[in-house]
Design goal:
mainly beta, five-stranded antiparallel sheet, elongated
Length: about 120
């Protein structure tokens, strides 16, 4: 999977990759910080978010289900996320893009760590 740049600025907007820790379940909701709007078209075609078992570096390490198949995630612009199957490990990290006006960009706590 292509991993886009962590933070981009363009036309007065900041677009960044955020992360949400998932401790249990196969669906839920995220709320991005900084009055940001979720963007779902920044990954490879057909991919709205990425899912990883590790965020200590910017590399996607997909979790697996009990059959050994990769678990993927879908994310709506409203923040609802759904996993393709139940993973065998938690926590997981949902990686998603959101953008906000530069003046609103003050909270970096949910940013993906630097690579």
């Amino acid at each position: 999977m292509r991993v886009p740049p962590r933070i981009q600025t363009e036309g007065g907007l900041v677009r960044a990759i955020y992360t949400e820790q998932i401790d249990a379940g196969v669906s839920g909701t995220v709320a991005p910080p900084n009055k940001a709007r979720i963007i779902t078209d920044q990954w490879d075609p057909g991919t709205s978010a990425a899912l990883s078992v590790n965020i200590s570096r910017l590399a996607i390490e997909s979790p697996e289900d009990s059959e050994g198949d990769p678990v993927t995630a879908t994310l709506s612009v409203a923040g609802g996320w759904v996993l393709s199957a139940a993973p065998t490990v938690y926590p997981l990290y949902l990686l998603y893009f959101a953008e906000t006006e530069i003046g609103n960009y003050t909270d970096e706590s949910k940013l993906v760590p630097k690579g």
